[in-house]
Design a protein that fits this description.
The protein is mainly beta. Helices cover about 10% and strands about 40% of the residues. Strands 1, 2, 3, 4, 5, 6, 7, 8, 9 and 10 form a ten-stranded mixed beta sheet that branches.
């Protein structure tokens, strides 16, 4: 199986999102994260005419720092994106100075799973995106009639 991240240049990637805005996403209420003894589940909803899938995740910055920042982030689930992206606003909330990021990327954790994350840009600069670099270790279930989604994390 080929890994798409070897073939898509991060800086050239774009998602044309004309039907969804950050101001709308911020108002969405999602139950959030639940877990059992073996798995974490990210809960979500579908939104709008195009039934965009949004989930609530806990994003953590950790490393050699004395402090660990964790925030709740509503993310667009996009299986067409090979990468995970966070907005400048999210990076700032995590205490990250973008000037300190080599190549506009750093490792973060989404519900405990370490993933290389990039800075959102172009047409999706105000949207946090959960791409396949995270989703490839998950089971995604979408119930369009009920307007609900759930992601089971297996890592």
């Amino acid at each position: 199986m080929m890994d798409a991240t070897e073939y898509v240049v991060v800086e050239q990637f774009d998602i044309l999102l004309t039907d969804i805005k950050a101001t709308v996403i911020e108002r969405i209420k999602i139950d959030g994260v639940k877990h059992d003894d073996e798995h974490f589940f990210l809960r979500g909803v579908t939104l709008g005419e195009n039934a965009r899938v949004l989930v609530k995740a806990v994003v953590t910055r950790s490393g050699n720092l004395q402090q660990h920042h964790a925030i709740n982030v509503t993310m667009l689930v996009d299986t067409g994106s090979p990468y995970v992206y966070f907005t400048q606003k999210t990076w700032k909330a995590l205490g990250v100075d973008l000037a300190d990021l080599p190549n506009d990327e750093a490792y973060l954790k989404i519900n405990g799973v370490r993933v290389l994350a990039h800075v959102s840009s172009n047409h999706f600069e105000d949207i946090d995106v959960m791409g396949t670099s995270f989703l490839k270790n998950c089971k995604v279930a979408i119930d369009y009639p009920e307007q609900k989604a759930e992601i089971h994390i297996f890592e």
